[in-house]
Amino acid sequence: MITLENVGVRYGTGPEILRDVSFRLAKGEMAFLTGPSGAGKTTLLRLLYLALRPTRGLIRLFGEDVTAVSRARLPELRRRIGVVFQDFRLLDHLTTFENVALPLHVAGVRADEYRDNILELLEWVGLGDHVNAYPRVLSGGERQRAAIARAIVSKPHLLLADEPTGNVDPQLARRLLRLFVELNRLGTTVIIATHDASLIAATPGARVMTLHQGRLSITPAGEAA
Amino acid sequence: MTAQTKKPGGWGAPVPKGLSGRNILPRTHAPLRTFMVAMAVMTYLAAVAIGGMFMTWRAIQIWKSGVVAEATVQILPLSEPEQNSGKAQKLPATDMNTRVQQAVRFLEKRPEVKSLRVLTDRENRALLQPWLGDVSIMQDVPLPRLIAIRLNPERKIDIAALDRALRAAVPGARLDAHGRWVRALSHMASTVFWLGLGILAAIIIAAVVLVVHAARAALESNRETIEVLHLVGARDSFIARQVQRLFLRAGFLAGMLGVAAAWLTFALLALLAPAEGIREGAWQLLFGAPEKIAYHYGAWLIIVLTATTISLLSARTAAMRILAEMFAEP
């Protein structure tokens, strides 16, 4: 599913943010990406959701070399990836329902084909009463759940989440984690970037990838603290 | 995802319609408002230019048809050599009246001439008064006699041939068909036409540049939204369609607004212009004969459609190019 070999990223002429990062993640695996602030977690996620090309090395996603893929091919690959951003990135002028419907709308799915699924999904993430609400009136946790719903609505093969529990209380964090675990059980490969050690400890089946000063070390599943 | 569905948002909450027909890019932002104002001004200028062109064109056609329909025959006093030569020898040299009668008889027989009128000596002198002042002191100076003729509009007239025949028949006679004025008016009409086209071309170029800049500003101000759209898998063509939708609506509204303002301008001219000719011209432009004003209103409709089309095509082309520049590399 995901293969990185000796990947390096450098912004302009600055130092390398990521150095010789290599790992493989099979379909249906779950992994945590952790490490101190500035270690390169977000940069690694940006590489994986195709918002950035590496300075060197090889990245294969879904069996395709994405370092050489053309710009026109990117949308198709991105439709197979769901992303939950730390700052949600919901569109303020669209309702919760419309924000969640966005990936399906841009893929050309008709509203009557997705309406019921989205209502069900919003119910599932606990936003059934906020379908027509705009992001501005939602709490941090509600926005986070709307962002998660948007990321999973198109049943992505790969789900990337950048500090998905950073803005929520511990109780909601555990609830969101259960949501990710359930998605993973349904076959989605999940990578969660987090500082939250309790989250990692609560998921013994997941691999833990630790970034430190741009270098990656991997703890196999079940060996995390 | 097996949760039980219930009515979203509680009882009475509207069921969401989805995103079809919805603006994915927010519509209310400064670049679009600025674009609308500038585009409305440009369509106003284009509509006024076209209206002015029609008014001037019509005035020129009226003047020209008047000038073309009329001609003047001059019977000049004969100089001494002329008096002693050819046909003139058979006539008393000073008998201007005889030659005038001769010319009248000649002209009355010609099918090209519809009607004629011999100007009296007093009328002749009155014509000179604006240039020479009191002409009573010139009582003894021989002046040419003039015959005003109306040409037959149903015939194609060879003015040069008619002039030659007249000169041969009546000594000292010549025909002036105001050709110089006709040429000048034709020249003026084509100048007005090309000038109008030039103004319209300049306005169209300015409009295209305006749309390109406004599209860039609209994309820049929506950079975050566009990033999100890209990340959820939107193609550039999808985003360009959203931009084009914003500009389609704005371009159409601006076009309507500009043309409406131009209509009001001409309506005010028709009611309040100090010169009667301008009032009449503006009135004819707006409320004249239906078969004529159809062209005017048609041209204005074309301006609205052109403004809309320019907005649509330029916005799409610009958006595709700018997106490729802005997000060149992931």
Describe the protein's architecture and organization.
The complex is a heterodimer of chains A (225) and B (330). Chain A is built from seven helices and ten strands. With 225 residues, chain A is an alpha/beta fold. Chain A has a single domain (29-49, 73-219), classed as Rossmann fold (3-Layer(aba) Sandwich). The model of chain A has no long low-confidence stretch (mean pLDDT 90). Chain B has 330 residues and is of the alpha+beta class. Chain B folds into two domains: 30-64 and 183-324, no CATH class; 77-171, no CATH class. Chain B is built from ten helices and four strands. Chain B has helices at residues 30-69, 80-83, 96-109, 121-132, 159-169, 179-221, 223-231, 236-272, 276-287, 290-326; strands at 70-75, 113-118, 145-151, 173-176. In chain B, helix 1 (30-69) packs antiparallel against helix 10 (290-326), helix 6 runs parallel beside helix 10 and helix 8 runs antiparallel to helix 10 (290-326). The two termini of chain B are 33 Å apart. Chain A binds chain B through residues 49-53, 71-72, 74-76, 78-79, 83, 89, 91-95, 97-98, 101-103, 105-107, 110-112, 114-116, 118-124, 128-133, 150, 154, and chain B through 1, 3-6, 8-10, 13-20, 22-24, 26, 224-225, 227-235, 238, 324, 328-330.
